[in-house]
Write a structure and sequence with these properties.
Layout: H1 17-80
């Protein structure tokens, strides 16, 4: 008959057969801990990089809005001066002809 108490696990000396198994489990646990730590460090690095990218995106969005406001302001000012810039011909790109020195 049992007294109702849970039985104690059979823990043997580290140099016995079961001790070798315990050593392997401890080594596996240590490898697992190292792997988890490496993954956590990598995740932190990725998160930091993502935060930098998000910050840059916000900055670019802000600069784009500012540029668009300035372009609109310039268009309105030119219209107030009756500059006629909207009807002006577009500049034509000039292509340089290659010299025929070889002929």
């Amino acid at each position: 008959m049992t007294s109702g108490k849970p039985s104690k696990p059979n823990v043997s000396h580290p140099h016995s057969e079961n001790g070798h198994q315990l050593f392997n489990e401890t080594e596996k646990n240590e490898q697992y801990r190292r792997g988890v730590k490496m993954l956590q460090e990598r995740c932190k690095a990725i998160q930091k990089n993502n935060e930098r990218i998000v910050h840059r995106l916000h900055l670019v969005k802000k600069l784009t809005k500012k540029r668009n406001r300035e372009v609109d302001m310039l268009k309105n000012r030119l219209d107030r001066y009756n500059d006629g810039w909207r009807t002006a011909p577009q500049p034509v790109a000039v292509k340089l002809e290659e010299s025929k020195a070889s002929e």
